[in-house]
Amino acid sequence: MDLGTLFSNPEQLFAMGSLGLLALVMFGALALFICALVSILCSPLGFGMTIVWIIITFSAPFLGPVAWFLIGRGDAYRRREAY
Q1: What are the tens digits of pLDDT across the range 4-31?
Q2: Which of 21, 69, 70, 80 could form a disulfide with 44 if both were Cys (CB 3.0 to 4.6 A apart)?
């Protein structure tokens, strides 16, 4: 398949673009998930809260990491400074 054939068929071009966008979003979600797990494991939380956040992250693979970075991470470091 050459580029001329690819650009002459808009449905095929749209499908390839959609697949590329989907792959990009999936890799982004995977990177967010991995970064959240590393951040949770390196945080100063106690063992119990670390396990809770890991369970949340695995239960909701996109919302769990987002919740960690928006809520949990800051709270973990504020708790550390309180001691």
Answers
A1: 666 677 787 788 888 989 999 999 999 9
A2: 80
User: Could you give the CA distance from residue 73 to residue 60 in angstroms, rounded to a whole number?
Assistant: 17
Alpha-carbon distance 17 to 15, whole Å?
5
Domain ranges of the chain: 3-82
Distance of CA 20 to the CA centre of its chain: 18
Element counts in the chain: helices (H) and strands (E): 5, 0
What gap in Å lies between CA 64 and CA 57, rounded to an integer? 4
Would you say 26 and 59 are in contact if contact means Cβ atoms under 8 Å apart?
A: no
Closest C-alpha to 39, from 9, 3, 64: 64
Tell me the pTM.
0.74
